[in-house]
Specification:
This protein is mostly helical. It contains one helix and no strands. The longest helix has 49 residues.
């Protein structure tokens, strides 16, 4: 009886993972895009700190 319950729980868990996989991919893409933008902003900030003369007169 315990083995049958374990098999059913495993199958339900697998089907849940398959069902939510497209959503997980979409969330991962959104997070990756957001992190890419933050990395670009941070790179520009560090460049402004390292090369302040390059940015004189810009706001």
């Amino acid at each position: 009886m315990h083995v049958l319950k374990f098999i059913c729980q495993t199958m339900v868990g697998f089907f849940k993972q398959v069902w939510f996989f497209p959503h997980s991919v979409a969330v991962a893409r959104t997070q990756r895009r957001r992190q890419f933008v933050l990395d670009e902003i941070e790179a520009e900030r560090l460049d402004r700190i390292r090369n302040p003369l390059k940015y004189l007169g810009r706001s």
